[in-house]
Write a structure and sequence with these properties.
With 277 residues, the chain is of the alpha/beta class. The chain is built from twelve helices and nine strands. An eight-stranded mixed beta barrel has the order 1-2-4-5-6-7-8-9, surrounded by five helices. The protein is globular. It starts with 13 loop residues before the first helix and ends with a helix. Bound molecules: ligand C2E and calcium ion (3 copies). Ligand C2E binds next to strand 2, helix 2, helix 3 and strand 6. This is EAL domain-containing protein. It comes from Uliginosibacterium sediminicola. Keywords: Phosphoprotein.
């Protein structure tokens, strides 16, 4: 902090003021982008390491700016969450991803799971369950093929609320994955209580899996935890064959990452899927 001209301590530094201006600008641009339908979804395949089959796809949000450049979700999702815009964006994501699941089924891939990222701001919204079941019923999506990804750190907040929420989501026939697993300090007793289906090992642990260091053992621990609790495990951010081999070795049977495919737009995804079969 800097000392202002009257000698008092000013709270905002120049950098913070710039930062706030940038956020306000982005928020206005985001509102505009929603109106003009500049948001879209891309889909990244999730593969079985045993068979090479595609088990699922993860829907990931993209924003094309006026200059044609993509604005990464890590930049605009925090702003959307802060402003509450994530609620309507998230409803659109759920509807669109559910329709895409139906499209996949109609194109000959009825067993492919559609994973949808959900923010805690959405979960806390009183209309969340209604929006979710409407997305299902309007699209005709198969709930057994819909999975919600909730970050581990979020699931650890407000334990009773989240745990009841997950029960209600599961009652719709939808499955739940804990995203970025290993970064959120879950307690084992709490994990056992949560009605979840899958642990998604965070990318940071996959990138160090062949390092030879102690961090290398973390995915193995997650595998053991998954086995103990009866949960499936998937690895994210698999970029090289050595990582996939190391995962196979510890019994991890699903993976997602640039090694297999980048996130793709709907049309490309269908071409990609057809080319594999
Ligand atoms: P996430 O849910 O952990 O998604 C995985 C991120 O890793 C994606 O980044 C994906 O493109 C990227 N990725 C996949 N494979 C690889 C790889 O092999 N190497 C590397 N380095 N990266 C890989 P993306 O699409 O930029 O999304 C960033 C984050 O934004 C997501 O992290 C998620 O937290 C959030 N997000 C994306 N779409 C949505 C959405 O529809 N709703 C909400 N609430 N959050 C979203
Ligand atoms: Ca995710
Ligand atoms: Ca993740
Ligand atoms: Ca992440």
């Amino acid at each position: 902090a800097k000392t202002g001209n009257r000698g008092e301590y000013s709270f905002f530094t120049r950098d913070m003021a710039d930062d706030i201006r940038e956020r306000v600008r982005l928020l206005q641009a985001l509102r505009h982008a929603i109106e003009r339908q500049r948001l879209f979804l891309v889909y990244q395949p999730q593969l079985s390491l045993d068979t090479g089959h595609v088990c699922g796809v993860e829907a990931l949000l993209r924003w094309r700016g006026d200059d044609g450049q993509l604005i990464p979700p890590d930049r605009f999702i925090p702003i959307a969450e802060h402003s509450g815009l994530i609620v309507s964006i998230g409803e659109w994501v759920m509807r669109t991803a559910c329709r895409q699941q139906v499209e996949l089924a109609q194109q000959g891939f009825p067993q492919i799971r559609m994973a949808i990222n959900v923010s805690v701001i959405q979960l806390r919204h009183p209309q969340f369950l209604r929006s979710l079941s409407e997305a299902l019923s309007e699209s005709g999506a198969d709930p057994r093929c819909i999975e919600l990804e909730i970050t581990e750190s979020v699931a650890m907040l407000e334990a009773d609320f989240i745990s009841r929420m997950l029960d209600q989501i599961k009652a719709l026939g939808i499955s739940i994955a804990l995203d970025d697993f290993g970064t959120g300090f879950s307690s084992l007793s709490y994990l056992r209580r949560l009605n979840i289906d899958r642990l998604k090992i965070d990318r940071s642990f996959i990138s160090s899996i062949t390092s030879g260091g102690r961090a290398q053992r973390i995915p193995e621990l997650v595998m053991q935890l998954g086995q103990t609790l009866g949960l499936a495990v998937i690895a994210e951010g698999v970029e090289v064959a050595e990582q996939a081999a190391a995962l196979s070795l510890i019994g991890c049977n699903e993976a997602q990452g640039y090694l297999y495919a980048r996130p793709m737009e709907s049309r490309m995804l269908l071409d990609w899927l057809r080319a594999r079969t």
